[in-house]
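Hey,
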Amino acid sequence: MKKVKIKDAYIKLGQAMKLGGMVSSGVEAKLAIQGGEVTLNGETELQRGKKLHDGDIVSYNGETIQISQ
């Protein structure tokens, strides 16, 4: 599991996916999220702008990242 370090209190889901190398663009993240392919803490997440905080875990396409502050 890869850790994604954030400086602020939160990061949005689409941004975290790009920062973690899961997708190469915001459009790719948007399509994956809207397609129901992304899970947040084990639950399917459909909101690209969902705020992620320290400890949240995102999975997509066999890759997993954890948000860390």
